[in-house]
Amino acid sequence: KGGAIESQINQDRAFVVSPYNLSGSDNKDGAATTTSRLLGVFDGHAKLGEGVSQHAVTQLPKLLSSKIQQEGDSSANIDESTIKQALHESFIEIDKTAPAHVSGGCTASVIFQHSDKLYIANAGDSRSFIASYIKPTKQVVIEYASREDKPHLEDEKKRVEEMGGRVYVPPEGSGGTSRVMYIDGNGNQYGLAMSRSLGDWEAGRLGVIPDPIVDVVKISDIIASHVNADGSCTVEEDGSSSCAAKISEADVKLFAVSATDGLIDYVSLEAIANHVAMGLFEEEGEGELHLLNACEDLIMAAAKGWHDHRGGRYRDDIAIAASVISS
Question: Which residues form the PPM-type phosphatase domain (predicted)?
């Protein structure tokens, strides 16, 4: 990573829980009857920030499950508002219970599939996205991507300044990032490069909140938008014709990715989506790139970007979580 040996600590955490069985049983055998999975990343920052990201990655799965089950007797009966509220409350509780009195904080970007819906909850500058792979054409489409919660965004800047914080916006073209400036308990000034996070209590007094933005995407809507059952053809004025590939529901494959800024600062979301799709959906004879190898390729590409840009003096931690989404 560059720097002193004591700084060579990976503060990022990533997880994929698939299947993700909610607390309680859906049937007498304890087997889930509703498709659920959970994945995400947590990017720790500042001194001992890895303590907060570790707390989040270990506590969030069971905390979310518990909160969802408080509202329903079976996973099939849980509605959208209940899940959104459970995600929001889980982020808030992780923030409150984090070991932040002796450490920094972390981002949180997670994707929760429950039946036909995908819930994306984000706080900070890590990102999550949903993408599709169209088998007949091998086309990869990013269907949804969470935003980076940055201090210069109008709504974020307004909240921070109303709570007494100061937002630093670097000169255009400088390559820097906007920051929320704050003084820690020891009197040291810091600039936090995000407007939402978990565990940053000092900055929290100045408008850096743990509340996630939670969006919902319907799996069936994405699939339906790509289906072209008849493989229709069009005829141009010059007499030439072109036919679209026949695409059925089975041809549309969905997948989800969460990644920290150590990756997305140097590898575009499109490049990540295309390479993950190769690892998930390539068939025998097409290269057979395994998902783990695909993720390793992306990490190495980002690491090279950091090395080339920083001359080996610094590289941010890098984490990625990826999973197929089944309908």
Answer: 1-325
Strand 108-114 relative to strand 36-45, pairing: antiparallel
Burial level of 171, CB count in 10 A (0-12/13-18/19+)? exposed
Measure Cα distances from 207 to 85, 160, 179, 192 in Å: 21, 4, 12, 11
**pTM of the model as a whole:** 0.92
Average pLDDT value for residue range 70-77: 68
Average pLDDT value for residue range 203-231: 93
Residue with tokens 């959104």: 84
Helix residue ranges, H only, the chain: 49-69, 80-97, 154-162, 201-204, 219-226, 261-264, 269-281, 291-310
d(CA 50, CA 47): 8
Q: Whole-angstrom Cα distance, residue 26 to residue 71? A: 14
Check if CATH label 3.50.80.10 holds for domain 5-147+210-325: no
- pLDDT (0 to 100) of residue 186: 76
